[in-house]
Design a protein that fits this description.
Blueprint lengths: L8 H19 L14 H4 L1 E2 L1 E7 L2 E7 L5 E2 H14 L15 E8 L3 E2 L4 H8 L6 E5 L6 E4 L10 H11 L6 H4 L3 E5 L1 E5 L7
Antiparallel strand pairs: 1-4, 2-3, 2-5, 5-10, 6-9, 7-8, 7-9
């Protein structure tokens, strides 16, 4: 998905509605909604990769997603919305009482691009804060983690960003300095319920 291929606001609104419906049904123990793909805009029927993030009073409450397109985008969003509510290992499952206070955000990912670099300083120089999502992978163990571009808001320093991402992958915080890791970057188009008050 290139920048010319960004989704329209209306397509984003549809994804937010699907995500909200999936969260509410999952939390209440109801079957997940099955998007009527034939009725959706073409780009929501194409394979896509997404993350769904839940916030409560501005604080992270759950975030689950995938880096590779495996399902139609609309279905991908539904599955990750339910998982963000119930399966993020960092948080207890969302309760029905919390639903009115939640804000839903959907991030649609561009394809991963390998980032070639020569040493840690070069890596820092090549990253684009507030633009790039980053994937780190240890080629020896397969340990892997990602931060969405939105994480730069909380970790604007590239050194801290990479150290926290190494920790998230289960590595030492200085792993990205000490050994060559595989790195990919991607961008996202994010849609948040506060952008669409009527959604």
């Amino acid at each position: 998905m290139t920048h010319e291929g960004w989704l329209s606001p209306e397509e984003g609104r549809i994804l937010l509605r699907l995500a909200r419906n999936a969260v509410e049904r999952a939390v209440r123990g109801q079957p997940l909604p099955q998007p009527d793909l034939a009725a959706l805009p073409p780009r929501l029927r194409e394979p896509g990769a997404s993350f769904v993030t839940l916030y409560r009073q501005g604080r992270l409450r759950g975030c689950i997603g995938g880096l590779e397109p495996r399902f139609p985008l609309a279905q991908d969003v539904v599955l990750h919305a339910a998982a963000a509510a119930l399966e993020d290992p960092r948080f207890p499952p969302v309760t029905p009482e919390e639903l009115p206070a939640l804000e839903v955000e959907v991030s649609v990912l561009t394809p991963l691009q390998p980032l070639e670099y020569e040493g840690p300083e070069d890596l820092v120089q090549r990253l684009r804060p507030n633009v790039d999502g980053v994937v780190l992978e240890d080629p020896e163990t397969g340990a892997r983690a990602t931060f969405l571009p939105q994480v730069w808001e909380k970790l604007p320093d590239p050194y801290a960003f990479l150290s926290h991402l190494s920790l998230k992958a289960g590595l030492m915080p200085d792993a990205w300095v000490k050994k060559p890791l595989r790195v990919w970057t991607y961008q996202v188009q994010e849609f948040r319920e506060s952008q669409f008050p009527e959604t």
